[in-house]
Design goal:
Bound molecules: adenosine-5'-diphosphate, zinc ion
Number of helices: 25
Shape: globular
Distance between the termini: 47 Å
Mean pLDDT: 88
Radius of gyration: 31 Å
CATH superfamily of the largest domain: P-loop containing nucleotide triphosphate hydrolases
CATH topology of the largest domain: Rossmann fold
CATH class of the largest domain: Alpha Beta
Amino acid sequence: MKYVEVILPLPLEGVFTYIVPPMLAERLLPGMRVLVPLGRSKHYTGVAVRMHEEAPGFDCKEIESVLDEQPVLLPEQLKLWEWVADYYLSPLGDVYKAALPAGLKAEDGYRPKTETRVRLSPDVYTASAVSQITESLKQTPAQLKLFQSFLNMARQRCSSEDFHAWLPSFSLTREELLNESRSTMATYRNLVKRKLLQPFEHEVGRLNKGGEPHFNQIKSLSEAQQQAYDEIVSLHRKKNVVLLHGVTSSGKTEIYIHLIRKAIDEGRQVLYLLPEIALTVQMMARLRKVFGNRLGIYHSKYSDAERVEIWQKQLSDDPYDVILGARSAVFLPFRKLGLVIVDEEHETSFKQQDPAPRYHARSAAIVLAAMYQKAKVVLGTATPSLESFYNAQSGKYGMVTLTTRYQDIRLPEIHVVDMKDRYHRKLTVGAFSNDLLEAVREALSAGEQVILFQNRRGFAPMVTCKDCGWVPKCQNCDVSLTYHKRLNALTCHYCGHTYFVPEKCPSCGSQEIRQRGIGTEKIEEQIGQLFPEARIARMDLDTTRTRSAYERIISDFSAGKTNLLIGTQMISKGLDFDHVSVVGIMNADSMLNYPDFRAYEYAFMMMTQVSGRAGRKGRRGRVILQTQQKELPVVSHIVNNDYLSCYKEILEERKMFRYPPFFRLIYAFVRHRHESVVERAAQTLAEQLRSWFGNRVLGPDKPSVAKVKTMHIRKIVLKIENGFDLAVARRCLWQAQAALEGDKRWSTVQIYFDVDPQ
Ligand code: ADP
Ligand code: ZN
Ligand code: ZN
């Protein structure tokens, strides 16, 4: 008897065993989809993982059918799924759900796109039939005209000596026919009714054809770029991963393009990952020019049908050479992957938050590459993530540094504005210092463009002293506290400690302690009143719900249709605008005080990236950075573009407070409808974990968002030192989860993990 292990698209551990009926055994291969029964009446499309002949110790059902002629997953993709499930402690079924486009999950979900074409009916081909019909149509001139148009178009396109023998193979689209003959739909229908014309549906691809590649469009590299390129190539002989640390606008993208061509020349495929869909628009245009139809695009704003077609093309004999995509593109099949580029590698949006699997696409990409012989990875950024830089310093990754911008354009001048002082001296209007307003005015009147950056985290509820800028911090964790309006209390994310809101500022005695948080919308309103003639656009989650909305905001700004762009982190990333002379950072404090151990790292990255949008071509740009904490070292690191000092300082803190890269973090979340249940279940889980992991376990505590969709949440933090056996840790976590879920008292409690949280 043959058995097969099947992954089902359900949030359940592991695989399910089914019997393979002899009739299907020959056709079935790992990676094919199979239709299987589950329970009394349900059916699912599963993916076959492996076949064997060992009877399991329980009854199992038969698979009902095999849905594919060829596997839809290659062995590498299956292995990647298993790695993601294992490493991120998430059910294999959840990985399946995330990885495969919906149209491939159900047997009827994907409908090919078709067009209506028209041919002659089978008995109309011969010369005599044609003349007979022509005769009979004389009474209806409109129909005759349409019929003759069809024949004329056929004659024009006929490539054969014998027109009538060739005619049966000829067809054209209905649209073409109606347009060319200038006929109405009614006339056409009459000819169909008379069984002279025969319509049929023809399958057409949705994929953008993209035109021929033009490798001659590749720009030649500058001396510094060529040197970086050579170093990358030579480091790749020794290391699988190379970090390219190049300042904004140094030409990293041009270097990638050369690396991609090299891979293609060697007959290998390339995966180019970007953190955010907003960026793929510009990058697509740049890569399209060079790689034309050899380039495929893949991300979640594409329709499911488009994604299915790209998936199938990747499995075909003529797959794309280059795939440009966001996070989920890491799951696409590749036959001969040679290079993975992770652009803007520091971006946290590479990590999936919800739902499971909570995977990091950078890590997954590195694991994916390791499965292919000779496949290499380039991580590129102007502001490396602490983890990647640490890996480079410790020799695990190679590193290449580019310190000059292309054509030696100078980095922008960063002007720090002390908002404490400006508030005192009443030199502000709304959220703006006079300094920033002056800079905006100058830029706009010179016909230049302005970007105003407001961190999304500006919405995070916090309290601050209006007079001295004091922000309450946790005694145990050295992070800023979050303000809970309903409780009128301050809490720490990390240890769960709760504090009263002080009546007076402990630093200066002022009673002006207030909540803060100002959003992009408010800024838009204020700037609109101050500069009624400015053409303003806003780019944030609200204004970019669709792919076309992103594209329009970016292209309008690029083309100068708008001249002032307000935005969240979305605008801080890699976008390349030519006429931006001023960048305003509205509120650096919202980043600096964010209650997260990564606050300074993110603040440095974000402000450095957004500054990089200023003054790309022509003259030096200006950045106005508004803060109440100008004395913080991280602020001067940003001003001096001093990554190394910033890195060293943060690393010290990370070591002291037991954070990555010295410790690995795993969060365990417990979720239930009733607060008292979740409270007790989380306590039980924490005790169980403490019995194994000791003081590596912190909590449970209330996360900042402690209730989502009527579910109460508790969080347990696990800090595991480097060197601790992770496989053991994972087994313990699975076991603790299984024990809790198996306990009648907690049977409806949900537990899930976040490994390497961002
Ligand atoms: P980065 O990716 O490092 O931010 P880009 O590759 O976007 O930098 O380069 C910034 C700008 O300079 C782009 O407009 C790019 O086309 C141009 N550029 C960079 N290198 C070259 C080169 N070698 N030849 C021509 N233009 C270049
Ligand atoms: Zn104060
Ligand atoms: Zn704390």
